[in-house]
Amino acid sequence: xxxxxxxxxxxxxxxxxxxxxxxxxxxxxxxxxxxxxxxxxxxxxxxxxxxxxxxxxxxxxxxxxxxxxxxxxxxxxxxxxxxxxxxxxxxxxxxxxxxxxxxxxxxxxxxxxxxxxxxxxxxxxxxxxxxxxxxxxxxxxxxxxxxxxxxxxxxxxxxxxxxxxxxxxxxxxxxxxxxxxxxxxxxxxxxxxxxxxxxxxxxxxxxxxxxxxxxxxxxxxxxxxxxxxxxxxxxxxxxxxxxxxxxxxxxxxxxxxxxxxxxxxxxxxxxxxxxxxxxxxxxxxxxxxxxxxxxxxxxxxxxxxxxxxxxxxxxxxxxxxxxxxxxxxxxxxxxxxxxxxxxxxxxx
Length: 348
Hints:
- By secondary structure, the protein is α/β, with parallel strands linked by helices.
- The chain has two domains: 9-159 and 328-346, Glycogen Phosphorylase B (Rossmann fold); 176-324, Glycogen Phosphorylase B (Rossmann fold, 3-Layer(aba) Sandwich).
- The chain has 13 helices and 13 strands.
- It has helices at residues 28-41, 72-79, 99-103, 119-122, 139-149, 189-199, 215-224, 238-247, 264-271, 284-287, 300-309, 317-324, 329-346; strands spanning 9-13, 45-50, 60-63, 88-91, 111-114, 133-136, 154-155, 176-180, 202-206, 230-234, 250-253, 276-279, 294-297.
- The protein has a seven-stranded parallel β-sheet, with helices on both faces. It has a six-stranded parallel β-sheet with strand order 10-9-8-11-12-13, with helices on both faces.
- Strand 1, helix 1 (28-41) and strand 2 form a beta-alpha-beta unit.
- The chain is globular, with a radius of gyration of 21 Å.
- The model has no long low-confidence stretch (mean pLDDT 95).
């Protein structure tokens, strides 16, 4: 393949859920778009696989169908024939259909399968190829992968724009704590509500209500909101989240039912100068500096004690922002460049 003077032909595969860039708030779709954009800015020839109405500067886009109305198998039928022309494919999709061509022996270039959920929920077994390459978004995920499959998983931390976008707005802090995530059981908004009620603190509940498919759970959360101490806000755009991060007293990420693979929101909160109270589980040990940018807790009682003590107010908000800066978009792009080169040279 013609490498074009060291530059690569790279394919980035997003999900079938949202067109990119996403108008509201999202996770992997936003990351896939950032990577495509960033790799193109570095001179690589990039193609992005994403739903209809997607666009990205200086990137070729192959549309796969109406957003949220087609499966990943249907999307695969739109792009599989293009995959052999790339030097490397970065696959952010959930089902990783790109490995089919590897299994069939028709794709010689590497596929980097990025996992955005706990390994045991995404993979029951590895694809039957000689050198499957999977990328985790935290060291905890890589350790989990190795424990399950006795294989190495590469690590590439997610990145946020902490230079121009996620930064303190210079507005006064309120007396209200913040939950910001989708309203699903695994994100534990009910635990945040319980902790704030027991600690006598106020809480804003912000996040998506449509994608979870848990209407009864959502109704139970709505039933706890009184509009004053516990206030339900609902969905917010990515820009609006910066305001919430900047003005809230502290950020709560108490998902005790979910081995957090990375957790964008806690990093975004810290970049906005906000301290974090989170559950001591998964990647939170890597993205939050205990005692400096937040606190890791092992029980609801511990979380209540932290809020009652007001110790989050004593943490240096400048240190929070400094810590979050290591999880930058620029570092993420550099890491994926390294992994693409490593995968090509290793014949994965």
